What does this fold into?
Amino acid sequence: MRVLVTGATSLLGRHTVEALLERGDSVVVFQRSESGLDGVEEHCGSITDRATLDAALAGVDGVIHLAAKVDPVGDWEDFKAINVTGTANVHAAAADAGVARFVHVSSPSVAHGGASISGEGAEPADPDQTRGHYSTSKAIAEQQVLAASSAAMPVVAIRPHLVIGPGDTQLIGRIVDRAQSGRMPLIGSGLALVDTTWVDNAASALVAALDAAPDVAGRAFVVSNGEPRTVHELIARITDAVGIEWSPRNVPARVAIAGGAAAEAAWERTGRDGEPPMTAFGAEQLSTAHWFDQRETRAALGWEPSVTLAEGWLRLAAHHAFGG
It folds into this structure.
């Protein structure tokens, strides 16, 4: 199969490309700058530019669409342009190119309104209840591409939950940076159960979804390791693996959420670069349960995770021991 992967320079994008190449697929990658990946046909550009997408999609059989704006704060128009309009561009260009299957990489946050999630499946995306521009824009995009799923080009949405692994700058990178500077508190009790997804497992799930797309068209699935752990344990495992001593102070959840909302407002009002020390969404994620029933996902996709969290922590420690 000839497969286009957008957003190939991301952690998950690189692993997805490797997984496709390992099984013998021909891979085309599309991202803003050169990926440095071997064995691929490379196209650079923005998903907001239809002309460059058309060139990349020539002769493609399947698409795995990862490209997105994932920042915790920022201007709504930027999120809309990339995550909503950009996704629509990729989908439309793929349909015009005669692509046979389309995997849209989404997020569990598209159906999260702030309450705890304990053992649920993939609830419908709902942009009216989402928290933050990223989640809202991803919810709109998911709704649109799933609604456009057809027999000619079946679409499936995969929502990997908290993808982690060596080189992760989203969760592990933020925890490490803040723990090193003494700014990684424990929000609430730290006992909320949270799912994560080791990056190799997330990549293999996307490949499985590509294969299964005709049979699961128009559906969304949450993907995780299926090994929920408390927030306290996750942070402790990460900091231990990278050799950081973490002695957290406890901050009440309500205080952290209110402080995060205030920080977001200040960043947006002043146009400051970077990200605030905490956001309301981040505080909610660190203080509420969010783990998912994986039985339907695994049965529908014919997929099982291959890397356990125990193995993952060993890999993370080895990566950092050798200067990663």
